[in-house]
Amino acid sequence: MMTELFHRVARPAILAVSRSDGLRRTAERLPVTRQVVHRFVPGESVADAMNSVEQLRYSGRLVSIDYLGEDVTDVDTANVTVDAYTTLLDALATRSEAAGTVRPLEVSLKLSALGQALPRDGEKIALENAHAICERAQRAGVWVTVDAEDHTTTDATLSIVRELRADFDWLGTVLQSYLKRTHADCEEFAASGARIRLCKGAYEEPASVAYRDGDDVTDSYLRCLRVLMAGTGYPMVASHDPEIIAAVPAMARENGRAVDDFEYQMLYGIRDGEQLRLAEDGNRVRVYVPFGTQWYGYFVRRLAERPANLTFFLRALAERRH
Ligand code: FDA
Fold first, then answer.
1. Cα 108 from Cα 66, distance rounded (Å)
2. How many folded domains does the chain comprise?
Protein backbone atom coordinates (compact mmCIF):
# COMPACT_ATOMS: atom_id res chain seq x y z
CA MET A 1 0.00 0.00 0.00
CA MET A 2 2.74 2.48 1.08
CA THR A 3 4.87 1.33 -1.85
CA GLU A 4 1.99 1.86 -4.30
CA LEU A 5 1.41 5.34 -2.81
CA PHE A 6 5.11 6.11 -3.15
CA HIS A 7 5.09 5.09 -6.80
CA ARG A 8 1.90 6.99 -7.58
CA VAL A 9 2.56 10.23 -5.67
CA ALA A 10 6.20 10.64 -4.69
CA ARG A 11 7.90 9.09 -7.71
CA PRO A 12 6.56 11.57 -10.33
CA ALA A 13 7.47 14.50 -8.04
CA ILE A 14 10.99 13.19 -7.44
CA LEU A 15 11.51 12.52 -11.14
CA ALA A 16 10.37 16.08 -11.97
CA VAL A 17 13.15 17.27 -9.65
CA SER A 18 15.68 15.38 -11.76
CA ARG A 19 15.16 18.00 -14.52
CA SER A 20 15.67 21.06 -12.23
CA ASP A 21 18.97 22.88 -12.74
CA GLY A 22 18.62 24.94 -9.54
CA LEU A 23 18.09 21.88 -7.36
CA ARG A 24 20.91 20.10 -9.15
CA ARG A 25 23.33 22.92 -8.26
CA THR A 26 22.17 22.95 -4.62
CA ALA A 27 22.41 19.17 -4.29
CA GLU A 28 25.87 19.09 -5.85
CA ARG A 29 27.17 21.57 -3.27
CA LEU A 30 26.00 19.60 -0.23
CA PRO A 31 28.72 17.34 1.16
CA VAL A 32 26.07 14.99 2.55
CA THR A 33 24.65 14.42 -0.94
CA ARG A 34 28.05 13.34 -2.15
CA GLN A 35 28.33 10.92 0.75
CA VAL A 36 25.00 9.28 -0.16
CA VAL A 37 25.74 9.43 -3.89
CA HIS A 38 28.80 7.25 -3.30
CA ARG A 39 26.49 4.37 -2.50
CA PHE A 40 25.39 4.40 -6.16
CA VAL A 41 28.32 6.09 -7.94
CA PRO A 42 31.83 4.95 -6.98
CA GLY A 43 33.52 8.21 -7.96
CA GLU A 44 34.12 10.96 -10.45
CA SER A 45 37.37 9.91 -12.18
CA VAL A 46 38.45 7.13 -14.55
CA ALA A 47 40.72 5.93 -11.73
CA ASP A 48 37.67 5.56 -9.45
CA ALA A 49 35.85 3.59 -12.16
CA MET A 50 38.89 1.36 -12.75
CA ASN A 51 39.16 0.71 -9.04
CA SER A 52 35.57 -0.61 -9.05
CA VAL A 53 36.29 -2.67 -12.16
CA GLU A 54 39.19 -4.36 -10.32
CA GLN A 55 37.04 -5.18 -7.30
CA LEU A 56 34.07 -6.44 -9.30
CA ARG A 57 36.23 -8.56 -11.63
CA TYR A 58 38.02 -9.97 -8.59
CA SER A 59 34.67 -11.18 -7.23
CA GLY A 60 33.82 -12.85 -10.56
CA ARG A 61 31.41 -10.22 -11.86
CA LEU A 62 31.35 -8.62 -15.31
CA VAL A 63 31.08 -4.84 -15.67
CA SER A 64 29.46 -2.16 -17.78
CA ILE A 65 30.82 1.32 -17.17
CA ASP A 66 28.83 4.45 -17.82
CA TYR A 67 30.33 7.93 -18.05
CA LEU A 68 27.56 9.97 -16.46
CA GLY A 69 25.93 12.73 -18.48
CA GLU A 70 22.74 13.31 -20.43
CA ASP A 71 20.71 15.95 -22.26
CA VAL A 72 23.76 17.64 -23.75
CA THR A 73 22.83 20.92 -25.46
CA ASP A 74 26.03 21.87 -27.30
CA VAL A 75 28.54 20.18 -29.57
CA ASP A 76 31.53 20.91 -27.32
CA THR A 77 30.00 19.04 -24.38
CA ALA A 78 29.18 16.10 -26.66
CA ASN A 79 32.84 16.08 -27.73
CA VAL A 80 33.93 16.08 -24.07
CA THR A 81 31.80 12.94 -23.62
CA VAL A 82 33.50 11.23 -26.58
CA ASP A 83 36.92 12.15 -25.15
CA ALA A 84 35.93 10.75 -21.75
CA TYR A 85 34.90 7.43 -23.35
CA THR A 86 38.15 7.36 -25.32
CA THR A 87 40.18 7.79 -22.12
CA LEU A 88 38.09 5.14 -20.39
CA LEU A 89 38.43 2.66 -23.27
CA ASP A 90 42.21 3.21 -23.37
CA ALA A 91 42.34 2.41 -19.66
CA LEU A 92 40.19 -0.70 -20.13
CA ALA A 93 42.39 -1.84 -23.05
CA THR A 94 45.37 -2.07 -20.69
CA ARG A 95 43.64 -4.88 -18.78
CA SER A 96 44.49 -8.21 -20.34
CA GLU A 97 41.13 -9.95 -20.21
CA ALA A 98 40.73 -13.18 -22.17
CA ALA A 99 38.53 -12.46 -25.20
CA GLY A 100 35.76 -15.06 -25.19
CA THR A 101 32.39 -14.82 -26.91
CA VAL A 102 31.15 -12.72 -24.01
CA ARG A 103 33.19 -9.64 -23.20
CA PRO A 104 33.73 -9.16 -19.48
CA LEU A 105 34.16 -5.42 -20.01
CA GLU A 106 31.51 -3.20 -21.51
CA VAL A 107 30.70 0.50 -21.65
CA SER A 108 27.16 1.88 -21.62
CA LEU A 109 26.30 5.17 -23.28
CA LYS A 110 23.42 7.60 -23.56
CA LEU A 111 22.87 9.07 -27.01
CA SER A 112 21.61 12.31 -25.43
CA ALA A 113 25.11 12.75 -23.97
CA LEU A 114 26.52 12.43 -27.49
CA GLY A 115 24.40 15.24 -28.97
CA GLN A 116 21.15 13.46 -29.96
CA ALA A 117 19.00 16.40 -28.79
CA LEU A 118 20.98 19.12 -30.60
CA PRO A 119 18.60 21.21 -32.74
CA ARG A 120 20.27 20.67 -36.08
CA ASP A 121 21.81 17.34 -37.10
CA GLY A 122 21.53 16.01 -33.53
CA GLU A 123 20.86 12.46 -34.65
CA LYS A 124 23.66 12.52 -37.21
CA ILE A 125 26.10 13.89 -34.61
CA ALA A 126 25.07 11.27 -32.04
CA LEU A 127 25.44 8.51 -34.65
CA GLU A 128 28.94 9.69 -35.65
CA ASN A 129 30.04 10.04 -32.02
CA ALA A 130 28.66 6.61 -31.09
CA HIS A 131 30.33 5.12 -34.18
CA ALA A 132 33.71 6.55 -33.11
CA ILE A 133 33.26 5.09 -29.61
CA CYS A 134 32.29 1.68 -31.04
CA GLU A 135 35.42 1.63 -33.24
CA ARG A 136 37.60 2.40 -30.23
CA ALA A 137 35.76 -0.22 -28.15
CA GLN A 138 36.24 -2.85 -30.85
CA ARG A 139 40.00 -2.25 -30.77
CA ALA A 140 40.00 -2.42 -26.96
CA GLY A 141 38.01 -5.69 -26.91
CA VAL A 142 35.18 -4.01 -25.05
CA TRP A 143 31.44 -4.22 -25.76
CA VAL A 144 29.09 -1.22 -26.02
CA THR A 145 25.42 -1.06 -25.00
CA VAL A 146 23.20 1.96 -25.73
CA ASP A 147 21.01 3.06 -22.81
CA ALA A 148 17.29 3.83 -23.16
CA GLU A 149 16.09 7.30 -22.21
CA ASP A 150 12.61 8.83 -22.18
CA HIS A 151 10.04 7.55 -24.71
CA THR A 152 10.32 10.59 -27.02
CA THR A 153 13.81 9.37 -27.95
CA THR A 154 13.04 5.66 -28.46
CA ASP A 155 12.44 5.72 -32.23
CA ALA A 156 15.55 7.81 -32.92
CA THR A 157 17.69 5.72 -30.57
CA LEU A 158 16.62 2.40 -32.09
CA SER A 159 17.17 3.67 -35.60
CA ILE A 160 20.75 4.75 -34.66
CA VAL A 161 21.26 1.34 -33.04
CA ARG A 162 20.14 -0.44 -36.24
CA GLU A 163 22.65 1.61 -38.26
CA LEU A 164 25.47 0.94 -35.81
CA ARG A 165 24.71 -2.78 -35.74
CA ALA A 166 25.39 -2.97 -39.47
CA ASP A 167 29.07 -2.30 -38.62
CA PHE A 168 29.19 -3.65 -35.06
CA ASP A 169 26.91 -6.66 -34.72
CA TRP A 170 27.96 -7.07 -31.07
CA LEU A 171 26.38 -3.72 -30.12
CA GLY A 172 23.63 -4.06 -27.52
CA THR A 173 20.74 -1.81 -26.58
CA VAL A 174 18.31 -1.33 -23.71
CA LEU A 175 14.55 -1.86 -23.97
CA GLN A 176 12.14 -0.78 -21.21
CA SER A 177 9.25 -3.09 -20.28
CA TYR A 178 7.06 -0.21 -19.02
CA LEU A 179 6.64 0.97 -22.63
CA LYS A 180 3.71 -0.66 -24.42
CA ARG A 181 5.72 -0.79 -27.67
CA THR A 182 8.53 -2.87 -26.15
CA HIS A 183 7.03 -6.32 -26.78
CA ALA A 184 7.16 -5.59 -30.54
CA ASP A 185 10.69 -4.14 -30.24
CA CYS A 186 11.78 -7.32 -28.42
CA GLU A 187 10.37 -9.43 -31.26
CA GLU A 188 12.35 -7.43 -33.82
CA PHE A 189 15.67 -7.43 -31.96
CA ALA A 190 15.38 -11.02 -30.72
CA ALA A 191 14.97 -12.16 -34.34
CA SER A 192 18.05 -10.19 -35.42
CA GLY A 193 20.26 -11.87 -32.81
CA ALA A 194 20.96 -8.70 -30.83
CA ARG A 195 22.16 -8.34 -27.28
CA ILE A 196 19.22 -6.79 -25.44
CA ARG A 197 19.32 -5.42 -21.90
CA LEU A 198 15.76 -5.56 -20.65
CA CYS A 199 14.90 -3.21 -17.77
CA LYS A 200 11.63 -1.88 -16.35
CA GLY A 201 12.35 1.79 -17.18
CA ALA A 202 13.26 4.70 -14.95
CA TYR A 203 11.58 7.81 -16.43
CA GLU A 204 8.18 9.38 -15.74
CA GLU A 205 6.05 8.37 -18.73
CA PRO A 206 2.39 9.05 -19.64
CA ALA A 207 -0.26 6.30 -19.54
CA SER A 208 -0.74 6.71 -23.30
CA VAL A 209 2.62 5.01 -23.95
CA ALA A 210 3.53 3.23 -20.71
CA TYR A 211 2.16 0.84 -18.09
CA ARG A 212 2.10 2.79 -14.85
CA ASP A 213 1.04 0.12 -12.40
CA GLY A 214 3.96 -1.82 -10.85
CA ASP A 215 2.38 -5.26 -11.45
CA ASP A 216 1.62 -4.41 -15.09
CA VAL A 217 5.26 -3.40 -15.61
CA THR A 218 6.47 -6.68 -14.08
CA ASP A 219 4.00 -8.73 -16.21
CA SER A 220 5.18 -6.89 -19.31
CA TYR A 221 8.80 -7.57 -18.29
CA LEU A 222 8.15 -11.31 -18.05
CA ARG A 223 6.32 -11.37 -21.42
CA CYS A 224 9.18 -9.45 -23.09
CA LEU A 225 11.83 -11.63 -21.47
CA ARG A 226 10.07 -14.74 -22.78
CA VAL A 227 10.40 -13.31 -26.32
CA LEU A 228 14.11 -12.57 -25.81
CA MET A 229 14.80 -16.02 -24.33
CA ALA A 230 13.06 -17.69 -27.29
CA GLY A 231 15.00 -15.57 -29.82
CA THR A 232 18.46 -15.88 -31.33
CA GLY A 233 20.06 -13.00 -29.41
CA TYR A 234 21.68 -12.62 -26.00
CA PRO A 235 19.21 -11.58 -23.26
CA MET A 236 20.51 -9.38 -20.45
CA VAL A 237 18.15 -9.50 -17.48
CA ALA A 238 18.60 -6.06 -15.90
CA SER A 239 16.52 -6.11 -12.75
CA HIS A 240 16.83 -6.35 -8.96
CA ASP A 241 13.27 -7.63 -8.64
CA PRO A 242 13.19 -11.02 -6.81
CA GLU A 243 10.04 -12.06 -8.74
CA ILE A 244 11.81 -11.57 -12.07
CA ILE A 245 15.07 -13.20 -10.97
CA ALA A 246 13.15 -16.22 -9.67
CA ALA A 247 11.41 -16.67 -13.04
CA VAL A 248 14.64 -16.70 -15.08
CA PRO A 249 16.03 -20.25 -14.59
CA ALA A 250 12.83 -22.00 -15.74
CA MET A 251 12.46 -19.65 -18.69
CA ALA A 252 16.07 -20.28 -19.74
CA ARG A 253 15.64 -24.05 -19.37
CA GLU A 254 12.45 -24.07 -21.46
CA ASN A 255 14.34 -22.31 -24.25
CA GLY A 256 17.41 -24.54 -24.06
CA ARG A 257 19.66 -21.78 -22.76
CA ALA A 258 22.58 -22.68 -20.51
CA VAL A 259 23.83 -20.28 -17.81
CA ASP A 260 26.26 -18.73 -20.30
CA ASP A 261 23.56 -17.98 -22.90
CA PHE A 262 22.21 -14.96 -21.00
CA GLU A 263 23.25 -12.73 -18.12
CA TYR A 264 21.85 -11.01 -15.06
CA GLN A 265 22.60 -7.33 -14.62
CA MET A 266 22.25 -5.02 -11.64
CA LEU A 267 23.28 -1.50 -10.72
CA TYR A 268 26.38 -0.71 -8.67
CA GLY A 269 25.54 -0.60 -4.96
CA ILE A 270 22.13 -2.31 -5.26
CA ARG A 271 21.60 -5.84 -3.92
CA ASP A 272 25.32 -6.56 -3.78
CA GLY A 273 24.71 -9.80 -1.82
CA GLU A 274 22.28 -11.06 -4.46
CA GLN A 275 24.80 -10.21 -7.21
CA LEU A 276 27.42 -12.31 -5.42
CA ARG A 277 25.00 -15.19 -4.79
CA LEU A 278 24.06 -15.38 -8.48
CA ALA A 279 27.73 -15.22 -9.54
CA GLU A 280 28.73 -17.89 -7.01
CA ASP A 281 25.96 -20.13 -8.40
CA GLY A 282 27.76 -20.02 -11.76
CA ASN A 283 25.66 -17.34 -13.48
CA ARG A 284 26.97 -14.43 -15.46
CA VAL A 285 26.35 -11.22 -13.52
CA ARG A 286 27.23 -7.82 -14.92
CA VAL A 287 27.27 -4.70 -12.75
CA TYR A 288 26.49 -1.27 -14.22
CA VAL A 289 29.09 1.14 -12.82
CA PRO A 290 28.37 4.84 -13.39
CA PHE A 291 31.11 7.42 -12.79
CA GLY A 292 31.75 11.11 -13.41
CA THR A 293 30.71 14.50 -12.12
CA GLN A 294 27.25 14.57 -13.78
CA TRP A 295 25.68 12.18 -11.29
CA TYR A 296 22.58 14.22 -10.39
CA GLY A 297 19.99 12.79 -12.87
CA TYR A 298 21.13 9.21 -12.26
CA PHE A 299 21.08 9.70 -8.49
CA VAL A 300 17.57 11.19 -8.42
CA ARG A 301 16.23 8.28 -10.54
CA ARG A 302 17.63 5.87 -7.89
CA LEU A 303 15.89 7.87 -5.10
CA ALA A 304 12.62 7.68 -7.05
CA GLU A 305 12.80 3.89 -7.29
CA ARG A 306 12.53 3.03 -3.68
CA PRO A 307 11.15 4.68 -0.51
CA ALA A 308 14.10 3.31 1.49
CA ASN A 309 16.61 5.13 -0.71
CA LEU A 310 14.80 8.43 -0.28
CA THR A 311 14.50 7.90 3.49
CA PHE A 312 18.22 7.12 3.68
CA PHE A 313 19.02 10.38 1.91
CA LEU A 314 16.59 12.49 3.99
CA ARG A 315 17.90 10.96 7.22
CA ALA A 316 21.47 11.81 6.24
CA LEU A 317 20.35 15.39 5.51
CA ALA A 318 18.56 15.68 8.88
CA GLU A 319 21.51 14.24 10.81
CA ARG A 320 23.76 16.84 9.21
CA ARG A 321 21.51 19.64 10.53
CA HIS A 322 21.74 18.41 14.16
P1 FDA B 1 11.92 -2.65 -8.83
O2 FDA B 1 12.20 -1.18 -8.92
O3 FDA B 1 10.51 -3.07 -8.82
O4 FDA B 1 12.68 -3.22 -7.57
C5 FDA B 1 12.55 -4.54 -7.12
C6 FDA B 1 13.39 -4.72 -5.87
O7 FDA B 1 14.76 -4.48 -6.18
C8 FDA B 1 13.07 -3.75 -4.76
O9 FDA B 1 12.01 -4.22 -3.98
C10 FDA B 1 14.38 -3.70 -4.03
O11 FDA B 1 14.54 -4.85 -3.23
C12 FDA B 1 15.38 -3.76 -5.13
N13 FDA B 1 15.72 -2.41 -5.64
C14 FDA B 1 15.31 -1.88 -6.80
N15 FDA B 1 15.80 -0.64 -6.98
C16 FDA B 1 16.52 -0.38 -5.90
C17 FDA B 1 17.27 0.74 -5.49
N18 FDA B 1 17.35 1.87 -6.23
N19 FDA B 1 17.91 0.67 -4.31
C20 FDA B 1 17.84 -0.45 -3.56
N21 FDA B 1 17.13 -1.54 -3.89
C22 FDA B 1 16.48 -1.52 -5.03
N23 FDA B 1 16.40 2.37 -16.94
C24 FDA B 1 16.15 3.09 -18.07
O25 FDA B 1 15.10 3.73 -18.18
N26 FDA B 1 17.09 3.11 -19.08
C27 FDA B 1 18.24 2.40 -19.03
O28 FDA B 1 19.04 2.45 -19.96
C29 FDA B 1 18.49 1.62 -17.86
N30 FDA B 1 19.64 0.87 -17.74
C31 FDA B 1 19.75 -0.02 -16.70
C32 FDA B 1 20.82 -0.90 -16.66
C33 FDA B 1 20.89 -1.86 -15.67
C34 FDA B 1 22.04 -2.84 -15.68
C35 FDA B 1 19.88 -1.93 -14.66
C36 FDA B 1 19.92 -2.97 -13.58
C37 FDA B 1 18.85 -1.02 -14.67
C38 FDA B 1 18.78 -0.05 -15.66
N39 FDA B 1 17.73 0.89 -15.68
C40 FDA B 1 17.54 1.64 -16.82
C41 FDA B 1 16.88 1.10 -14.48
C42 FDA B 1 15.62 0.27 -14.51
O43 FDA B 1 14.76 0.72 -15.53
C44 FDA B 1 14.86 0.34 -13.17
O45 FDA B 1 14.53 1.65 -12.90
C46 FDA B 1 15.62 -0.24 -11.99
O47 FDA B 1 16.40 -1.34 -12.35
C48 FDA B 1 14.65 -0.68 -10.91
O49 FDA B 1 13.79 -1.70 -11.40
P50 FDA B 1 13.87 -3.23 -10.91
O51 FDA B 1 13.64 -4.09 -12.10
O52 FDA B 1 15.12 -3.44 -10.21
O53 FDA B 1 12.58 -3.45 -10.04
1. 5
2. 2
